[in-house]
Design goal:
The structure is a homodimer of 224-residue chains.
Chain A lengths: L10 E13 L2 E9 L8 E2 L1 E4 L6 H13 L7 E6 L9 E10 L14 E8 L10 H18 L13 H12 L5 H9 L4 E8 L7 E6 L10
Parallel strand pairs in A: 1-6
Antiparallel strand pairs in A: 1-2, 1-4, 2-3, 2-7, 5-6, 8-9
Chain A binds a DNA duplex (27 and 27 nucleotides) through helix 4.
Chain lengths: 224, 224
Amino acid sequence: MEVNNPLYKNQGIHVISTLFTIDNGVVKVLLIKRDNNPFKGYWSLVGGALYNNEEVIDGAKREIKEKTGIENVDIQMFNVFSKINRSPLLRMIAIGYIGVIDFNKVNVLKKTMKTVDADWVAIDKVGTLAYDHNEILESALEKLKDLICNSNILSSLYPKGFTIPEIQMAYESVLKKKYDRRNFRKKLINSGLIVDTNKTKKFEGKKPAKIYKFKNKITNKNVF
Amino acid sequence: MEVNNPLYKNQGIHVISTLFTIDNGVVKVLLIKRDNNPFKGYWSLVGGALYNNEEVIDGAKREIKEKTGIENVDIQMFNVFSKINRSPLLRMIAIGYIGVIDFNKVNVLKKTMKTVDADWVAIDKVGTLAYDHNEILESALEKLKDLICNSNILSSLYPKGFTIPEIQMAYESVLKKKYDRRNFRKKLINSGLIVDTNKTKKFEGKKPAKIYKFKNKITNKNVF
DNA sequence: ACAAAAGTGTTCTAAGTACACCCATGA
DNA sequence: TCATGGGTGTACTTAGAACACTTTTGT
């Protein structure tokens, strides 16, 4: 690699996180309003440019903290975005991260050094975002569907566990499908993703519901 | 993004392709021997630095062509590697691509501008590679297992189709498991990945075998 | 006792597992 | 006609889909 070849110059990496929550059956994504150019005044996903002294996932977490105040969020890489003009300043490659957060348990900063607003926005109410963030969001939504079927990604929404009926709402809102109560229960239970806690949760005038929680380690079953 | 912030300087992107083949039941990976520093004389996966005027996948394909002569290969992104000192020159992030090639149908250049040798190496005979390429290879092998179970990635090995017994060898060598002949057949057929071509292939002294081929479009079935 | 929502059960069908048997070929 | 390896079939078990019924609670 000839370091001085102009074809290698002026490149950088964006770390962009798509942070979802589920608010009363509505899937929402965390957006921030930019205070700087480019795209000043636009809403965008949470992220920024990677430092050259940090790993990608750490950069993503740093950006999340800087621009929203949120710490200790579990995120995972899901795609890469590299359209040549996706950023006007430098040639920037974006590494996309995805995470799920309980919106009740975090206090999102409305204003930071580089943002003037922040909000959880229902995914079908999202307008035109900065950069290629609409494309990143679409890709993240696909990945989210995959992850709730095959991982414990929703466990952050239910640190104390959940009842089957209440988590069914979450599945239905992400997957945009309705499921039979009884079959959903059976399927989720022998999916191997969750375990019974032997506790129950009482609702007024209703039969108490069993509380389940996600396993920490998910062993993914292979087709072959 | 303050473009002149030193934390953003000297970054680049590697596009690294892990190209597999299956040679008589042995899974092999295409390695090239470097003629330049860093890691001069080391074997490595196929790749190099991304240009700032090309998309990531196009850069990966350009590098494959430059360093092996292979064109028209199907590759897909599978992971990102970002250890801080993975490259000694600049801070380089690696985007990993994976592909499967029929080693009989390509003519791999033994020597190019930047390589002095190239070879298909059995995956359990691979030594210490340049950069973090051993780690990338491990990750690619995991992805390969996933892909042969859920996609038509092996179709490039069998452009004219394949018989069930011969492709079973391929599955067994990648997944490192043995399968019952009869059950493997049933499972692969109603996996939805392949279709019958109504042709047969004759072997000496044996019953002719039906030829199947992979579907072009795989509709992946969701758990929920 | 009643409504509301939780939990359990049944039947049918489709797919996975572990087997044994038959078929087409060339020597 | 025989060995070789390919193709088909059966019994058992397990999981998904479409259903109806019972249980616990507060009013």
